[in-house]
Amino acid sequence: MSRLSILILLLIVLSFSSALSELCNPRDKQVLLKIKKELGNPTTLSSWLPTTDCCNNWVGVSCDTVTQTYRVHNLDLSDLNLPKPYSIPFSIGNIPYLEFLSITGTPNIIGTIPPTITKLTKLRNLYIKYTNVSGQIPRFLSQIKTLEFLDLSYNKLSGNLPAWLPSLPNLVGISFDGNRISGAIPDSFGYFPKSFVMLSLSRNRLTGKIPATLAKLDVKFVYLSKNMLEGDASLLFGSEKHTRHMYLGNNSFAFDLGKLGLSKTLEGLDLSHNRLYGTLPKGLTSLKDLYYLDVSYNNLCGKIPRGGKLQEFDASTYAHNKCLCGSPLPSCKRF
């Protein structure tokens, strides 16, 4: 056998051996390459090559090595340098074992969320944020019963909050901050599953009062700042709840702050730029983990309770109220 024949045979063997050692499922690989093409072959995905293993060193791709199915289960399409505006590829729904999908930090992603995403029947975490995706939050997302966290923040979404969201049985949290969502918070939001810990709806155009049903919720993280909400938000509080963050600033809430029962686990509380009245609750002094507090720009009165961490915050925390006084503000003259 000639040297040339041996060399050719060796190359064939090496090529065959390489193909056998590839972990990536061929169907997943073809879908990923199609997604890359549908996004204009961005240089961010230059590692996605037909000749390489998608389970090894493809940016944003990871495969299931625990059960050794080696199916693609995580896909992170972040900060893509797209050459022009593109919609989310419809073929994204053809990765059947996907559990985590993130499309973030790419202003050139436009259009609406594709319905093919409902084919991802194992999807647990969906992040579409900091894009120019528009339209309403689609009802077909209610078909993905495996969803645990839904983050659609900082896009151009509009319409109302979907009343069907609490029907997702495994939902842990939602974040729709920084969109153009309008209307009232649905009554159904008081019936999220017990696993639910995060309600984040800041920087939208929400109006109306907090539904009475939300008094039933025991949510660790509540972010409703910078909307046009009004009325009594005291029902969100409770000494028996496990709230850690309560951010309600820049709304038109009006209630007696002094009558609040506060969660012992409270770490951050923003009630600034509202119409709150009464005194500061003495329960604030017993909050050992409180690191952020802002009650400025309200109608509060009376002496700031001494103790806990209340005197560690600067005067801006309490500024622009009706008649609050005491350290760190000037001393009280009448109280």
UniProtKB/TrEMBL annotation:
It is found in: Membrane; Secreted, Cell wall. GO terms for biological process: defense response. Residues 1-19 form the signal peptide. The keyword Repeat applies. Residues 26-64 form the Leucine-rich repeat-containing N-terminal plant-type domain. Keywords: Cell wall, Disulfide bond, Leucine-rich repeat, Membrane, Plant defense, Repeat, Secreted, Signal. It comes from the Eukaryota. Its main location: membrane. It is a peripheral membrane protein. GO terms for cellular component: membrane. Belongs to the polygalacturonase-inhibiting protein family. This is Leucine-rich repeat-containing N-terminal plant-type domain-containing protein. It comes from Glycine max (Soybean). The gene is LOC100776194.
